[in-house]
Design brief:
three-stranded antiparallel β-sheet; 3 helices; HU Protein, Chain A
Length: about 90
Protein backbone atom coordinates (compact mmCIF):
# COMPACT_ATOMS: atom_id res chain seq x y z
CA UNK A 1 0.00 0.00 0.00
CA UNK A 2 1.36 3.40 -0.96
CA UNK A 3 0.92 6.60 1.01
CA UNK A 4 -1.70 7.82 -1.48
CA UNK A 5 -3.65 4.57 -1.12
CA UNK A 6 -3.45 4.93 2.67
CA UNK A 7 -4.83 8.47 2.49
CA UNK A 8 -7.68 7.30 0.23
CA UNK A 9 -8.51 4.41 2.56
CA UNK A 10 -8.64 6.72 5.59
CA UNK A 11 -10.75 9.22 3.66
CA UNK A 12 -13.29 6.53 2.71
CA UNK A 13 -13.57 5.20 6.29
CA UNK A 14 -14.27 8.56 7.93
CA UNK A 15 -17.94 9.03 8.84
CA UNK A 16 -17.84 12.74 8.03
CA UNK A 17 -16.80 14.45 4.86
CA UNK A 18 -13.20 15.53 5.29
CA UNK A 19 -11.02 16.90 2.57
CA UNK A 20 -8.33 14.52 1.30
CA UNK A 21 -5.64 17.20 1.51
CA UNK A 22 -6.20 17.56 5.28
CA UNK A 23 -6.04 13.78 5.69
CA UNK A 24 -2.76 13.83 3.75
CA UNK A 25 -1.41 16.42 6.19
CA UNK A 26 -2.57 14.23 9.09
CA UNK A 27 -0.80 11.15 7.67
CA UNK A 28 2.39 13.16 6.98
CA UNK A 29 2.32 14.53 10.54
CA UNK A 30 1.86 11.04 11.97
CA UNK A 31 4.85 9.72 10.01
CA UNK A 32 6.95 12.76 11.00
CA UNK A 33 6.21 12.21 14.70
CA UNK A 34 7.07 8.49 14.47
CA UNK A 35 10.32 9.28 12.60
CA UNK A 36 11.24 11.99 15.10
CA UNK A 37 10.75 9.66 18.06
CA UNK A 38 12.76 6.88 16.42
CA UNK A 39 15.65 9.22 15.59
CA UNK A 40 15.65 10.20 19.29
CA UNK A 41 16.00 6.46 20.05
CA UNK A 42 12.53 6.32 21.68
CA UNK A 43 9.98 3.55 21.24
CA UNK A 44 6.65 4.23 19.54
CA UNK A 45 3.89 2.01 20.94
CA UNK A 46 0.56 1.96 19.13
CA UNK A 47 -2.00 0.00 21.09
CA UNK A 48 -3.54 -2.99 19.27
CA UNK A 49 -1.05 -2.49 16.43
CA UNK A 50 2.55 -2.83 17.58
CA UNK A 51 5.79 -1.21 18.67
CA UNK A 52 8.47 0.51 16.59
CA UNK A 53 11.93 0.64 18.19
CA UNK A 54 15.60 0.93 17.29
CA UNK A 55 18.40 -1.53 17.90
CA UNK A 56 22.10 -0.95 17.57
CA UNK A 57 23.94 -3.54 15.50
CA UNK A 58 27.33 -4.84 16.56
CA UNK A 59 30.66 -4.28 14.85
CA UNK A 60 31.27 -7.15 12.46
CA UNK A 61 34.00 -8.40 10.16
CA UNK A 62 33.08 -9.20 6.60
CA UNK A 63 35.18 -10.79 3.87
CA UNK A 64 35.30 -8.97 0.56
CA UNK A 65 34.21 -11.24 -2.30
CA UNK A 66 37.00 -12.21 -4.66
CA UNK A 67 39.80 -11.38 -2.25
CA UNK A 68 41.10 -12.44 1.11
CA UNK A 69 40.69 -8.99 2.65
CA UNK A 70 38.38 -8.35 5.59
CA UNK A 71 36.63 -5.13 6.48
CA UNK A 72 34.97 -4.12 9.72
CA UNK A 73 31.56 -2.53 9.68
CA UNK A 74 30.63 0.19 12.10
CA UNK A 75 27.62 -0.26 14.39
CA UNK A 76 24.36 1.07 12.93
CA UNK A 77 20.96 1.79 14.40
CA UNK A 78 18.25 -0.29 12.75
CA UNK A 79 14.50 0.19 12.96
CA UNK A 80 12.54 -2.83 14.16
CA UNK A 81 8.81 -3.51 14.48
CA UNK A 82 7.13 -5.93 16.85
CA UNK A 83 3.46 -6.51 16.00
CA UNK A 84 0.91 -6.40 18.79
CA UNK A 85 -1.19 -9.39 19.80
CA UNK A 86 -4.34 -8.09 18.07
CA UNK A 87 -2.49 -7.62 14.78
CA UNK A 88 -0.96 -11.11 15.06
CA UNK A 89 -4.39 -12.61 15.66
CA UNK A 90 -5.87 -10.80 12.64
CA UNK A 91 -3.11 -12.13 10.40
CA UNK A 92 -3.52 -15.74 11.50
Amino acid sequence: MTKTELINAVWQKLPYSENQKRIGILVDTLFDVIASELTSRNQVKIRNFGTFFTRKSNISRKKLPGSSKFITTKPLHKIKFKPGLDLKNKLN
